Amino acid sequence: MAVIEIENLTKDFAVGFWRKRPVRALDGLSLEVRAGEIFGFLGPNGAGKSTTLKLLMHLLSPTSGSARILGRPAGDTAMHERIGYLPENPYFYDYLTPRELLTFMGRLFGMGGAPLARKVRELVGEVGLAASADLQLRKFSKGMVQRLGIAQALINEPEVVFLDEPMSGLDPLGRMEVRRIVTGLRERGVTVFLSSHILPDVEAICDRVAILNRGRLQEAGTLEDILRARISGHEVILSGWTEGTLEAIRPWCSEVRAMGERLHLRADDREDLEAVLGFVFAHGLELVSVNPIRPSLEEYFQTLVVGK
Amino acid sequence: MNRILAIARNTFRETVRDKILYNLILFALVMIGSSLALGQLTLGNEDKVILDLGLGAISVFGLLIAIFIGIGLVYKELEKRTVYALLAKPVRRYELVLGKYLGLLWTLGVNLAVMTAGLALALGYTGRAPAGAYWRLLPAVGLIFLSLALATALALLFSTFSTPALAALFTFFLWVIGHFNADLRTFGELSGSPAVEALGRALYYVIPNFGNFNLIDGRGVLQTAGYARPIDPWAVAGAGAYALLFIAFLLALSVIIFARRDFK
């Protein structure tokens, strides 16, 4: 079941002082995010990720197209009771303490009393701010504000959470924490829509991704599918080889490297791979591994963005 | 309603933790205190001088609080993007505008109460004012509160679409012009030119008439033999109704502008 349905969403901004001309920030985006998945929304800076999230949060009105969350239009206030949002580079009232901010945010959902106090205590613990729960935010580092931002997005136990660059500003440990929180959300059945340009994190936790560039959707699907389509060959590792082996299989391989007892080969297409494997089995060599050679998300992202 | 109150409460808390507020109150109290010294220079007019200066100080410093803190708050909310997280919650935009406004009124009310207490203390120090004067301070300050509530609504409206500096300037100018509003109309009528007369009349209706609220001055509060100026309850009620209608209009306009706004 789709919990986020984006259809042909387009947003133009007017720029210029006297003669305003429209600049298209988002161009006909259509997407579906299913219940319970972690959906990664990728793209370089200025690709239109934050614009999309703001359109979904109804902070911006679309030029055309529509977006529905949990079956309700983006502007439906009642639907907002069931979602959470972390803005990009969040900033909160710096005269408040985390406890006060979370209590205030909770009140906007009609929460109060002991259950709210309990929820606040639980959340500051979960994002690792328990020790500074009563410190004014003006004394906070960027990473601490980011953690608090995640906490405030979860105050209402949302069914869908939108996180705009949740890893930015965090050190490696902080990023690991966020990854833990996000996967924890999935375990509880929460759908997470996460925009990021920190690809290894996305690769580690996202079930499906969409890649956006210059306001246009380039690709959407599981990482497996996206990257499998780009397998550029296979790496075969053998041991127990002789000089004779080397000569015999060289015609099928685009690359042959001997590393101690092991031989690393690269076969570019399927026939070559089958020929190599046939030779290996026929001559009783020891097969250590066969691995598809596919680009990492980072490499793919680079070719996609720079290549155009 | 709960959400509006939560936002109002948070706005009040923000102003209470702002140092500017305390500076302004301190200045106002010093000003009221200094009226004691000025009063000494007059012969038997002490109480009137203290009251006129004191009410004037409350009005001016109240305006400064409304302008600086009021405009700053809305601007900060937009500029520092705290509004993003807020509007993603089940908060309607009008609730945010009304919550901010109520929070500012709350701040103004508490400040006016502090300044009024200071004024009453100054009056008590001379010990010559009639007991009723202390009670009559309340409608006098109440009218100031209404005029400041109107100025705050203006400031809020301007800050929904312009920069804080411009919003402060617009509010301040309208506050000053608004005190001479009736003169504008009279000027138009005396000019003899139908165009100028129409302009004077139009300005009279468009610009909030802050002169409406100058109904109770030092004489009105004292009501002693030498300084009697009867208070017309109908005029006070009229000023109240005028303020409420004008505020409702300004807030409605702010809500419309804010509701259509894109938060880039």
Task: From the structure above, extract its key features.
heterodimer; A: 308 residues; alpha/beta; Rossmann fold; Alpha-Beta Plaits; 2 domains; six-stranded mixed beta sheet; B: 264 residues; mainly alpha; 11 helices; 81% helix
Largest sheet of chain B: none
- CATH topology of the largest domain in chain A, by name, is Rossmann fold
* Secondary structure category of chain A: alpha/beta
Total of DSSP H or I helical runs spanning 4+ residues of chain B? 11
* Strand residue percentage of chain B: under 5%
Outline:
The complex is a heterodimer of chains A (308) and B (264). In chain A, 34% of the residues lie in helices and 30% in strands.
Task: Write up what this structure looks like.
The complex is a heterodimer of chains A (308) and B (264). Chain A is elongated, with a radius of gyration of 25 Å. Helices cover 34% and strands 30% of the residues of chain A. A 6-stranded mixed β-sheet of chain A has the order 6-7-8-3-9-10, with helices on both faces. A 4-stranded antiparallel β-sheet of chain A has the order 2-1-4-5, covered by helices on one side. A 4-stranded antiparallel β-sheet of chain A has the order 12-13-11-14, covered by helices on one side. Chain A contains 10 helices and 14 strands. Chain A is of the alpha/beta class and 308 residues long. In chain A, helix 2 packs across helix 3. In chain A, helix 5 (172-187) links the parallel strand 7 (160-164) and strand 8. Chain A has 2 domains: 36-53 and 89-228, 3-Layer(aba) Sandwich (Rossmann fold); 234-292, Alpha-Beta Plaits (2-Layer Sandwich), CATH 3.30.70. The longest helix of chain A has 16 residues, at 172-187. Chain B is mainly α and 264 residues long. Chain B has one domain (2-260). Chain B is built from 11 helices and no strands. Chain B has helices at residues 2-16, 19-40, 46-79, 82-87, 93-126, 131-159, 164-179, 181-191, 194-206, 218-222, 233-260. In chain B, helix 2 (19-40) packs parallel to helix 5 (93-126) and helix 6 (131-159) crosses helix 7. Chain B is globular and about 60 Å long. At the A-B interface, strand 6, helix 2 and helix 4 of A face helix 1 and helix 4 of B.
